[in-house]
Amino acid sequence: MALSAVLATAGCSASGATPPNGPGGSASAVQLSNCGLPLTVTTAPKRAITLEQNATEIMLSLGLADRMAGTSYQTDPVLPQLRPAYERVPVLAKLYPSREAVRAANPDFVYSTYTSAYAPDAAGPRADLARLGVPAYLSGFACENPADAIPTVSFDGLFGEIRDIATIFGVRERGEKLIREQQDRLDAARGTAATTLPSTTTARGTGPSLLWYYSGTTTPYVAGRGGVPDAISSLLGSRNAFADTAQKWPAGNWEEIAKRNPDVIVLADLTRGGDGDGAQSKIDFLRRNPVTSKLAAVVAGRFITVPGSSMDPSVRSVEAAELVGAGLRGIAR
């Protein structure tokens, strides 16, 4: 995601210039186009609200807990290294806070990963917040209008979002440090997976096929084209088994999955407790289902488990790349 920010007093790009207050400092205003809407932040926010865990953990990873007036929608236990900072931030709602709860917190910035957070029965549309003088940021991967969205998730795109938030809060050096750390981990994950099992479903040299199994038993939801799993598969020299499906998370069926016979099954370990959410419940189902029990990956036990939230664009996505890379190398031994 290109930042395309302009520092009003400096007249230059926020992503490539030093603000007038010195290295890493905040400028008097940042202007950018975010998901088709102009967004202007006149001063570095001091009372920000995040509306999902992905946005929360980006903020906390940038050391911005002291600038947060609230958070919401925790889907998994917060990353251990971020837990102390998270516990200092008020939790406004178990899921999305209402408009009234958002306004009562008196925010000067709102940040969401998903469009659903800005629904009328949640925080309300970004345009409405802007009219109240509250700039509202939305991840470029999930814009209200699909034509405005970044069509394919990439780590470069995620790093662009981190740069946006770091620039808005005047902590550009922290942003670049976080990006360097994440890139180093990606490079190491690529190296870890350098020796992987040969593909059993395609010609030699194309790499193993991965089925990214997110949730569901009656109707399995799997990773299609353009999401985090696709980006990780490419990074590790593997193939997403459903990369030819246009949706990022299509509803699949077991007969088609059996036909594609993936080499490895990557399981999302979800903590919400629904049917087929936990990794072990997925494995148990795959082994007892007459169709899937005969899959080569199931017979051989070629499973890799990753936290479900790491399959969405966030600072956790690097962890998924690390786990899958290490898993592939372990299977190949």
TrEMBL record:
Q: Which InterPro entries match?
A: ABC_Transporter_SBP, ABC_transptr_periplasmic_BD
| Gene3D superfamilies (alphabetical) | Nitrogenase molybdenum iron protein domain (3.40.50.1980)
What are the residue boundaries of the Fe/B12 periplasmic-binding domain, all occurrences included? 47-333
Which family does this protein fall into? Belongs to the bacterial solute-binding protein 8 family.
Q: What is this protein called?
A: Iron complex transport system substrate-binding protein
Originating species = Plantactinospora soyae
